[in-house]
Amino acid sequence: MAEEPKFSFTLSITGADILLGGLDLMKQRLKNPFGRGVDKIINAEVHGARAEAFETEGRSVGSGRGTWARLNAKYAARKARLRPGRGILEWSGRMRASLTNVRHPQSKMSRPTPFKIRIRNKNPLHPFHELGTDTIPARPTFKATKAFTKKLAKHVLDGITGVKSGKIKPIFGKNFAKDGGFVNGR
């Protein structure tokens, strides 16, 4: 007959089931990284960056010498007479509105695949100003800088991990980070 142990020692990790469940949820979210409103947050960031470009007349996108090219003298005089106080890319304000307002009918966001977000503008004049022509200098309204790209990547990561409280519910529960990763399953 086997002798009963006189002493036993048990070590258990609490919260492992929560951790495993959280990892499963992260795995699911990785299949759709722009889900859970992340696409809308990124869309708003791009439109906000374009609004800043209009406010700074191109300084925020670093085009050329740091600002959009000046208007030629003849056109500038005509514009000052007919549209006083309007910025470089503003005649009626319609293009600015379409580039800075996420709800504008010419502003379109789509998700061709779960891993791709496309933000477009259907204003017919936009490509001429963004890229320039033989007679119009390019005046870009958006530039994906390294810092801006990192900001967008953080939004995607927040959506996958759920660390942003309030808008995105944390995967592991509110006590996970506070308790050093170990939670008591409640």
Mean pLDDT figure: 80
Q: What is the helix fraction of residues, given as a range?
A: 40-55%
Gap between N and C termini? 42 Å
The general outline is rod-shaped
Low-confidence stretches: 165-186
Instruction: Quickly count the helices.
Output: 7
Main sheet properties = 2 strands, antiparallel
Structure description:
With 186 residues, the chain is mainly α. It has a domain at 36-143. The chain is built from 7 helices and 2 strands, in the order H-H-H-H-E-E-H-H-H. The chain has helices at residues 16-30, 38-56, 73-82, 94-100, 126-131, 146-161, 175-178; strands at residues 107-113, 116-121. Strands 1-2 form a two-stranded antiparallel ribbon. The radius of gyration is 26 Å and the shape is rod-shaped. Residues 165-186 have low confidence and may be disordered.
List the helices and strands and how they pair.
Elements: H1 16-30, H2 38-56, H3 73-82, H4 94-100, E1 107-113, E2 116-121, H5 126-131, H6 146-161, H7 175-178
Helix pairs in contact: 2-6
Could you name the key traits of this structure?
186 residues, mainly alpha, two-stranded antiparallel ribbon, 2 strands, 7% strand, disordered C terminus
In short:
The chain has 186 residues and is mostly helical. It is built from seven helices and two strands, in the order ααααββααα.
